[in-house]
Design a protein that fits this description.
Strand order of the largest sheet: 1-2-3-5-4
Order of helices and strands: EEEEEHH
Strand content: 15-25%
Structural class: alpha+beta
Number of strands: 5
CATH superfamily of the domain at 9-92: Nucleic acid-binding proteins
Length: about 180
């Protein structure tokens, strides 16, 4: 197998072909070519790679990725992290490459997942009589306004049906009492 440069190695290559999405660079010492995508040609936006490079130009590139796809080795190169005049690596710790990778990741949509909070204590405060906290955490002043947690929808429904039952039983209790008088 051919001797390929190591990952993140900087070398000078020759532009073999220019396409609308980037340029293919001949790698010295082997017959392979690598692609410099137009997003890796310059720190500025590049719409037409042909405005940046021409076939036969010598450019400094950095090998930023190796991928085997369909039994073919694909090499990704970058020109924007290498000084084109001196060949000096402008990103020796690969920080900007990591940032570019994070930008390309797709955002996962978590809006469909319901968030439930399980932080309500099943206690009653001795100071104010409200549910959900202890007396040492209570902020109510003696004789002041009392605050309690808002019941959840399910609890409201259960409480509402319970109140309706109580009203019905109270009505049925009141009817015989009226008859006795």
């Amino acid at each position: 197998m051919e001797e390929l440069p190591e990952l993140y190695a900087v070398f000078q290559g020759e532009v073999a072909t220019v396409t609308e999405y980037g340029a293919f660079i001949k790698i010295p010492g082997c017959r392979r070519q690598g692609l410099v995508h137009r997003t890796h040609m310059s720190a500025c936006r590049v719409d037409k790679p042909s405005e940046i490079v021409d076939v036969g130009d010598k450019v400094w590139v950095k090998l930023i990725g190796k991928e085997i796809k369909d039994d073919k080795l694909k090499l990704s190169l970058s020109m924007k992290v290498v000084n084109q005049g001196t060949g000096k690596d402008l990103d020796p710790n690969n920080v900007s490459l990591d940032q570019d990778e994070r930008k390309r990741r797709t955002f996962r949509d978590y809006t469909s997942q319901k968030i439930t909070l399980e932080a309500v204590l099943n206690t009653v405060c001795k100071k104010c009589g409200c549910k959900g906290h202890f007396a040492k955490e209570c902020f109510v002043q003696p004789g002041g306004t009392k605050y309690s947690l808002i019941p959840e929808e399910e609890e409201e429904e259960v409480a509402a049906t319970g109140c309706e039952r109580d009203k019905k039983t109270n009505l049925t209790d009141d009817i015989p009492k009226k008859r006795k008088k």
